[in-house]
Design a protein that fits this description.
148 residues, 35% strand, alpha+beta, globular
């Protein structure tokens, strides 16, 4: 069972910020072997959902307000589960909580840029593919809308 912390950038403690950056880099840069600019300027305007298993940051998403990533849509991004906590359905849990926060906070629909290999995962959560495949940081992606 995860315990949740949902905070603005300004509310994050130094330790929480370090933990989320460390986790994002561990998975997106090292594990996926993808050199990209993680500090893209969106963190400052977003809220951050951190899921803890005990004292370990196990899952994380960034909730991006309308107009920052997409005009007319809020977004959920940087979806990540710690390698030490996989196969516990934490990815599903953090996305469900992120969707709940988006629906309660924003009137806009939710649009995401999803890695293609995770299409089934996002479809099962209520998202629908709305684009052809495209490359983002040399990784195949689809644009998807929440229809849930």
């Amino acid at each position: 069972m995860l315990s949740w912390r949902h905070k603005t950038f300004e509310e994050l403690s130094n330790v929480e910020l370090y933990e989320l950056i460390k986790l994002r880099n561990e998975v997106f840069v090292v594990e996926q072997d993808c050199v990209y600019q993680d500090a893209d300027g969106k963190d400052l305007q977003s809220t951050h959902l951190l899921g803890y298993d005990g004292n370990d940051l196990a899952a994380y998403v960034r909730i991006v307000p309308e107009g920052v990533s997409y005009a007319g849509y809020c977004s959920i991004g940087r979806v990540v589960v710690s390698p030490n906590h996989r196969r516990k359905e934490y990815g599903k849990a953090v996305m469900e909580k992120g969707i709940e926060i988006c629906k309660a906070t924003y009137k806009e629909q939710i649009k995401i840029s999803a890695q293609c290999y995770l299409e089934k995962f996002y479809t099962e959560l209520g998202f629908e593919v709305i684009s052809e495949q495209y490359l983002e940081d040399d990784i195949p992606h689809y644009a998807m809308l929440f229809k849930g």
